[in-house]
Each structure stands twice: as C-alpha cells, then as structure tokens.
C-alpha cells in the first residue's frame, strides 16, 4: 500500500488481498481519493473501513466484486462524500451497523447492483441529511432491515421500496425524521408489508 499523506492512497497492486481488519484507512482526514482497483479479490471488510475520511469526495467500489461482508462503520462520517459507485458490490450479502451513515454531502445513492444483499444492520444510511434519492430496485433478496433505516435523512422526500419483496423484518425507527416516511408510496408499501 502506498499512502500519500496529503490526499490519496494507491491500492491497485493488492490483488491477492482477501480480508482487511478493523479501521482500514480510518480517520484519514486529508484523504481525497483512493484507488481501490486492486481489491478485486477482497471478500471481508472489518469495522470502520474508511470511516471518518472527512475530505473524501468520491469513492469507486466497482472493483470490489468478491466482497461478501462488511463490518460496522463502513464509510461512515465521510462528510464531504458526494458520490459513491457501488456497482461492484453485486455479491455483498450482509452489512453490519452504520453503513455509510452521516455522509452529509451525499445527495443520491444507487443500491440497485446489490442483488445478493439479504441483511442490513442498524443505522443504514443514517443521518445522510442531504440525500434526496436512493435506488433500491435491485434489492429483491433483502429480508432484514435493522433499526433506524435511513432515519434522519431530512432531505429525502420519497422513496420507492416496492422492490423489497423478500422483506420479513423491519427494525424500529424506520425512516424516522425523514419526510419520505409520510409519502404515499411509503405508506402504501408499509400497508402491504403489514398485511
């Protein structure tokens, strides 16, 4: 791994890496970019992966095609993050708590490629206060949403959750303090879920 202390990290040569532990690239407050293209065989990520990288503006996870599990605090509190390419996460099966929470500059997110995802922990996209839209169209295998799912996403006006056909469990405080909770599409979807 080559770390440039001021703004970037280069991981393109780590092709054999299968697991990273806790706090991998966490608290890198000056980090603006990371080349993760070498992590194509990465299967497991520990807690606090790239957490609190407050200068990070975008992240490209399109090469992480082998990733199956991420721990708590995955890309959390990256307050300048404006875009996240999650296309590579098609084999991701479960995410622990606090997935991409408090990314307060993020305005939209496309989760449609996460087709293998079955479980999301507590505080999934929690307090992403500028997020206006989220695409959940590929999450047809998702069966569990933890507590505080997209809670405190105060700019989220509406959301289409109609693709979540396998959902069996919805935790507490679902979309709490998010205007989308009161939208007709969410109310209709919840009514169908509860029948």
Secondary structure layout plus pairing:
Elements (H helix, E strand, L loop, with lengths): L1 E3 L3 E3 L8 E2 L12 E3 L8 E2 L12 E3 L8 E2 L12 E3 L8 E2 L12 E3 L8 E2 L12 E3 L8 E2 L23 E2 L13 H10 L2
Parallel strand pairs: 2-4, 3-5, 5-7, 6-8, 7-9, 9-11, 10-12, 11-13, 13-14
Antiparallel strand pairs: 1-2
How would you describe this protein?
This protein has one domain (1-195). With 195 residues, it is mainly β. 39% of the residues are buried. Strands 3-5-7-9-11-13-14 form a seven-stranded parallel beta sheet, with no helix packed on it. The protein has a three-stranded mixed beta sheet with strand order 1-2-4, with no helix packed on it. Strands 6-8 form a two-stranded parallel ribbon. A hairpin with a 3-residue loop joins strand 1 (2-4) and strand 2 (8-10). The protein is built from one helix and 14 strands, in the order ββββββββββββββα. The chain has one helix spanning 184-193, and strands at residues 2-4, 8-10, 19-20, 33-35, 44-45, 58-60, 69-70, 83-85, 94-95, 108-110, 119-120, 133-135, 144-145, 169-170.
Features of this protein?
195 residues; mainly beta; seven-stranded parallel beta sheet; three-stranded mixed beta sheet
Spatial ordering of strands, largest sheet: 3-5-7-9-11-13-14
The level of helicity is under 10%
Task: Indicate the radius of gyration in whole angstroms.
Answer: 16 Å
Helix and strand composition category:
mainly beta
Helix-strand string: EEEEEEEEEEEEEEH
Q: Main β-sheet, in a few words?
A: 7 strands, parallel
Q: Please, what is the average pLDDT? A: 90
Question: What's the β-strand tally?
Answer: 14
* End-to-end distance: 52 Å
- Principal-axes geometry comes out as globular
Q: Provide the β-strand percentage band.
A: 15-25%
What is the number of domains?
A: 1
Poorly predicted sequence stretches spanning 5 or more consecutive residues = none
Q: What oligomerization state is this entry in?
A: single chain
- By DSSP (H or I, 4+ residues per run), the number of helices equals 1
